Amino acid sequence: MKVKIKQWHGVASWLWVANDENCGICRAPFNGCCPDCKVPGDDCPLVWGQCSHCFHMHCILKWLNSQQVQQQCPMCRQEWKFKEGETT
Amino acid sequence: MNDNSAVLMLHGLPAAWDTVTAALVSPSTPPPVTDESVSEALTLLCKKGLGQYVEGWLLETLQVSLASHVAPEFWAGLQQPEVETQERARAVALLEAFRTLLRRLQPFLCGLERLGTWQDEGRAGLLGPGAHGLRERAFSIIRAILLFSPPPVLQQRVLEFYSRTFSVYMSQMEEQIEADDVAAESNGNDTCTGCAAAQQVCWCQDALEQLQEFSHILSRLQLLERVSSEAVTNILHRLIEQRMEQRCRGEYERSFLSDFNEWLEQVLGWLSRVFASEVGEAGSNTLPTDGMLDYIGSTILQRWRCHMQQFFCRIYVNMRIEELFSIIRDFPESTPAVEDLKFCLERTNQRQQLLTSLKSAFETRLLHPGVHTSDIITVYISAIKALRELDPSMVILQVACQPIRKYLRTREDTVRQIVASLTGDTEGCSELASELSRADPVTLETQDSEDEGSDPEEWTPDPTDALTVDKTGSKRRSSDIISLLVSIFGSKEIFIDEYKTVLADRLLHQLNYNTAREIRNVELLKLRFGESHMHYCEVMLKDVADSRRINTNIHEEEARLPEEEQPSVPLSAMILSSEFWPQLKEEKLELPAAISKSMETYTHRFEKLKAMRTLSWKPHLGSVTLDVELEDRTLTNLSVSPIHAAIILHFQEKGTWALEELSGVLGVPQELLRRKLALWQQHGVLQEESPGRYSVLEKASSRERPDRGIMLIDSDEEGDSNTTTQSEQREEKLQLFWAYIQAMLTNLESMTLERIHSMLRMFVATGPGVTEMDVNELQAFLQKKVRDHQLIVSAGVYRLPKTTQ
What we know:
By secondary structure, chain A is α+β, with helices and mostly antiparallel strands. In chain A, 11% of the residues lie in helices and 24% in strands. Chain A contains 1 helix and 3 strands.
């Protein structure tokens, strides 16, 4: 007997490779989107800081904009720096 | 003159009395005594103060004669034994009896007339009630004695006579109408349609003449109303009923109102004959002017016309109420019947009856386990459409359909059915789909706002039978089908969730990325349910579109690879945003290495495409198209689920597998595996050579016939749905509350069901699940916990078992 597969339609779900499930700022799942967005994924990406914490991009930007003096990671209070090359 | 008075004086009072009484009771022409002498006598009597007794005496005489001779004679005439057998003879006897009656009473009537005239003129100072008053008194005496307790024979005879004349009249009317049609004449029937006698002895004409005389006599004696009303009412009732039974029962597609109105006018023609002499009589006696005469006639007829309309409406409404269920079922074909019913119902006070009857019809004919949910929904939709025509205030709809709504709430598949028909999936009820795509939809958001912008002038109060318990009573009742259906469950979330599930199933089943129809549905639903609620569905559809793009991308990339690096399995994927899809069933399945490898490669390419993102495959979901080549035959383009494909791929490597062995390799429980194997057994590719051992059937000829395929049908029902069922989802939602419940019980030790429920509502009010959770559901959940020994219940109070504290 020989089985020839012509087409295999699989089903998968995508997920962020992150060390946490929820965004530390909005508490919504990373795989969902930030409160201001409607569509997850490309339209509401994650960003990583050099401290290795990650957030919804929109969330952390909003946070950083609200900080007058120094820009810190809301999780570890280190100075916030975007991790190079890993933003989408 | 002097002579006369001398004579009178001579004979004295007795003579005067005789003269007067003779003048009154035997007015045979020529009068035996001259007018003058009567006057003299009268004057004398009055002088002696006897004038007042004349009237008393006359009435007394009438009464005595009536009681002793006239009435017995009348009844005897009516009941002559020799006429019992023949209808025509009975009619004659009836007439004859009344003729005699009139003849016997005639002298008294004339006498009364005379005395009345004297009184009116005040002759010789005679006082009294006058002609009119006397006549009234005499007639009440006649009525009292004659009809005090009439034997039933009179009504029978009158009824029979009227029925006959009625049919004669109607058949003549019809002949007049049909006279235009020449052909209509020769119907080959030698009995007359009017009198039901043979043509040669037809007595139609006689009957009509008799009718005229009969009416005349009755009205002379002022007995017309007394004698005829009951019979006429009876006849009209019966005839309308009969006609309606013949014409209208079961026939809903035609309006009968104008038909019946025409027919009633004809009947009125007959009535005018029955009451014609009443008209004439009234005219000649008291109202000499012609204009007034018509007026009287028309008031009587007018009264009867109203009666008849009333009869008609009542009978019609009764019949239609009985048939209302069928009418609703046939709607909109039965629109004319509904319109007729509406017209008639407004004129009779039978709404309550209609409601009761319709409710019980629903309960006996629709709301039992033998009826499919989709049929109930179809009838409900028809009912909405029909009843909103019938009663624009929607009260009937609201009240009568209460049982349906209640019942639908108890059916598990209601939501699924409604959603399926909304999206046009089921064959039967496409109404909902078209209702959905109707222009100018009622948004569910705004439908219950108070200020609908309707003119306050057009406001009408609710009918009295409106449900007062209903809190929404003051609000405008919605007649929108979809809103009504959705409101069965009180919240639209449950529908949206169900739609999400249906949509997910559909998208995961077809896998061809063709979403035009779904997009349309989602757009339509958005108009109804509001943009925000359909947000998840939009993301789902977007996922499909994105998946297609990613697939194309990856496939293009693969095509550029050298031959040997081309993937062995053509793989495409549906990539979901897991947060936005309904919970998918988790099932374990180890796919064959080749497939897993392809998936891994695919994942790598995806990761390259979308940085920092990866894929988590759902190995059991999807579909596979494959060919199976056997020694003597090839099965092409089979479309199977991944687990089926995995099974057959394993058999490719090794011809025979034991069940437990295969189960170990696939990571699938044996029971499930056995069921899945059945598909290949049905295709005749595999056989179970000994219990628990399966092998490939290379040659079709070696297959045993007849095979046991019938028993082996893949009865995997939940295989149809990739998503968890509604109840499972609910269960999970409730599971969330378990922590709260435990905490509450730890602190408060024991609580009643109601307490727990209200506490949950208070504290966990933010979640979407709470609004949908009712006490019963919670109770079921707690019961389950009790069964699992996680909870103790005694005397309606729940507490945690000691050991867990």
